[in-house]
C-alpha cells in the first residue's frame, strides 16, 4: 500500500487475534455456513453494546433491509431517513418498495434535525418507521428523536454503521431504537472485510431476521418456504475476523480520538476552519475527523492539495435529496445538509497514521491558508 496516507483503512490487531479465530474455523472445517465464530461474534457484540440479541449478516445494508422488514415496512409505506448520509441508509427503503422522505440535519449534531422531523410527522402522519443515523460517529439528538417517535407510535431504526463505540449519555448508540445496525465494511472503525450486524432487545424478531437471512427455510426435512428469503448470513470465517477486531475496538477509538485532538490543536486557530460539533451528551468514536471550511480554500482545493502529497481525504456525504436517483422524493428541511456538503471535508483518520503523517497533513492545510 506504499506511503499513501488513507482516510480509514483496515487495521488488524498486532496480537493476531483475528488469525487465531480464522485458523480455528479452518481447523474445524467450519468455513461455512455457520459455526462458533458466528454465534460468539453475535453474543460478544450484543454484550458489548448492551443489547439482548444480535444477528450477524453479510453487510450493514442487509441489516437495514431486514430491520425494515422486521418493522413491517412494505409497499407504499413512508419511511423518514436523514438526507445527509451514505446511500446505503436509503437504498433498502426502495428494496421494500416503500417511499423515503428525507429529513435535514441541524448544525448542533450534523444528524437528523428534531424540528424537521417534527414537521415531517405533521406532513406524513401515516409514516411507518424512522431511520436515524449517527454520522461520522457523532450521536444524533436521541432524547428528542425518541420522544417524537413514541408520541407518533413509530418504529425507530438506528443506523449505527459508523458509530460502533459511540455512547450517547453513557449508552451505546445502536441500542436506543427498536432495531440497531452496525457495519464492518473495510473503512469502518473495525472491519471483517465486509459484514454487518442487527441488534435488538426483541429476541423473537432477531430470530426471524436470521430465518429470513438464510432463505426462510421452514422446519422440514425437505426444502420448504412459506416466506420470501435472502442469502444474507455472515460466514464463520468472516465472523472470526470480527471477534478479533472486537478486542481492539477500544484501542481504535482511542487512536481516532488522538487524531481528532491533534487536528484540533493544529488547525482550529486557522480562520474559517470549524470542527464537527461536540455535545455534552455525546462520547463519539471519532471514526472520521471532519471540518467545514469557510476560509481561503474550498474543500476541493484541499482534497487536491492533499492528493498531490499522496494523502486521501473526501467531501462530506452528498445529501440524498440532491442525488439523481433520489431527488424526486420529498425533503423536509432548510439548507443545513447542503451547506455541510458544500463546506465539509473528511480529513485522513486512519489509525495506522503516525505523528509524522499527521504533521504532513497539517502542513498541507496550513500552506493553503
Ligand atoms: C457503511 C455504511 C452503511 C452500509 O454498511 P455496509 O456494511 O457497507 O453495507 C450504512 N449506513 C452508513 C451511514 C454507512 O456509513
Second CATH tier, the architecture of the largest domain: 3-Layer(aba) Sandwich
Widest sheet: strand ordering: 1-9-8-5-4-2-3-14
How many discrete structural domains? 2
Helix and strand string, N-terminal first? Answer: HHEHEHEHEHEEEEEHHHEEEHEEHEH
State the helical fraction: 25-40%
Mean pLDDT: 96
Notable features of this structure?
single chain, 369 residues, Aspartate Aminotransferase, domain 2, Aspartate Aminotransferase, domain 1, eight-stranded mixed beta sheet, binds pyridoxal-5'-phosphate
Provide the fold topology.
Blueprint: H1 17-27, H2 36-49, E1 53-57, H3 60-70, E2 78-82, H4 87-95, E3 99-103, H5 114-123, E4 129-133, H6 142-151, E5 155-159, E6 167-168, E7 171-172, E8 179-183, E9 196-200, H7 203-213, H8 236-246, H9 249-267, E10 273-275, E11 282-283, E12 289-293, H10 299-308, E13 314-315, E14 331-332, H11 336-343, E15 344-347, H12 355-368
Parallel strand pairs: 2-3, 2-4, 3-14, 4-5, 5-8
Antiparallel strand pairs: 1-9, 6-7, 6-11, 8-9, 10-12, 12-15, 13-15
This protein binds pyridoxal-5'-phosphate.
Amino acid at each position: 500500500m506504499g506511503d499513501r496516507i488513507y482516510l480509514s483503512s483496515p487495521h488488524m490487531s498486532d496480537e493476531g487475534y483475528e488469525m487465531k479465530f480464522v485458523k480455528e474455523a479452518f481447523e474445524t472445517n467450519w468455513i461455512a455456513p455457520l459455526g462458533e465464530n458466528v454465534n460468539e461474534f453475535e453474543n460478544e457484540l450484543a454484550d458489548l453494546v448492551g443489547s439482548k440479541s444480535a444477528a450477524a449478516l453479510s453487510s450493514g445494508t442487509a441489516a437495514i433491509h431486514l430491520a425494515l422488514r422486521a418493522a413491517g415496512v412494505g409497499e407504499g409505506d413512508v419511511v423518514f431517513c436523514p438526507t445527509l448520509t451514505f446511500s446505503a441508509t436509503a437504498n433498502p427503503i426502495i428494496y421494500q418498495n416503500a417511499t423515503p422522505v428525507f429529513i435535514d440535519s441541524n448544525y448542533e449534531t450534523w444528524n437528523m434535525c428534531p424540528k424537521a422531523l417534527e414537521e415531517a410527522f405533521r406532513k406524513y402522519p401515516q409514516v411507518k418507521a424512522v431511520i436515524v443515523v449517527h454520522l461520522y460517529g457523532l450521536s444524533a439528538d436521541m432524547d428528542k428523536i425518541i420522544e417524537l417517535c413514541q408520541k407518533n407510535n413509530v418504529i425507530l431504526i438506528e443506523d449505527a454503521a459508523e458509530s460502533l463505540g459511540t455512547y450517547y449519555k453513557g449508552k451505546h448508540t445502536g441500542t436506543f431504537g427498536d432495531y440497531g445496525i452496525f457495519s464492518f465494511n473495510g473503512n469502518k472503525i473495525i472491519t471483517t472485510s465486509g459484514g454487518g450486524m442487527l441488534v435488538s432487545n426483541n429476541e423473537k424478531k432477531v430470530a426471524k431476521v436470521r430465518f429470513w437471512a438464510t432463505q426462510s427455510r421452514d422446519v422440514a426435512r425437505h426444502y420448504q418456504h412459506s416466506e420470501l428469503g435472502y442469502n444474507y448470513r455472515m460466514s464463520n470465517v468472516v465472523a472470526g475476523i470480527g471477534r478479533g477486531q472486537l478486542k481492539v475496538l477500544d484501542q481504535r477509538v482511542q487512536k481516532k480520538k488522538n487524531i481528532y485532538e491533534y487536528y484540533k490543536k493544529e488547525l482550529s486557530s486557522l480562520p474559517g476552519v470549524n470542527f464537527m460539533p461536540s455535545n455534552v451528551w455525546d462520547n463519539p468514536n471519532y471514526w472520521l475527523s471532519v471540518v467545514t471550511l469557510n476560509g481561503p480554500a474550498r474543500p476541493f482545493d484541499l482534497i487536491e492539495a492533499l492528493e498531490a502529497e499522496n494523502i486521501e481525504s473526501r467531501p462530506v456525504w452528498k445529501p440524498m435529496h440532491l442525488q439523481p436517483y433520489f431527488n424526486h422524493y420529498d425533503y423536509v428541511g432548510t439548507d443545513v445538509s447542503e451547506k455541510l456538503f458544500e463546506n465539509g471535508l473528511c480529513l485522513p483518520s486512519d489509525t495506522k497514521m503516525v505523528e509524522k503523517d499527521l504533521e504532513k497533513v497539517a502542513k498541507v492545510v496550513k500552506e493553503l491558508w
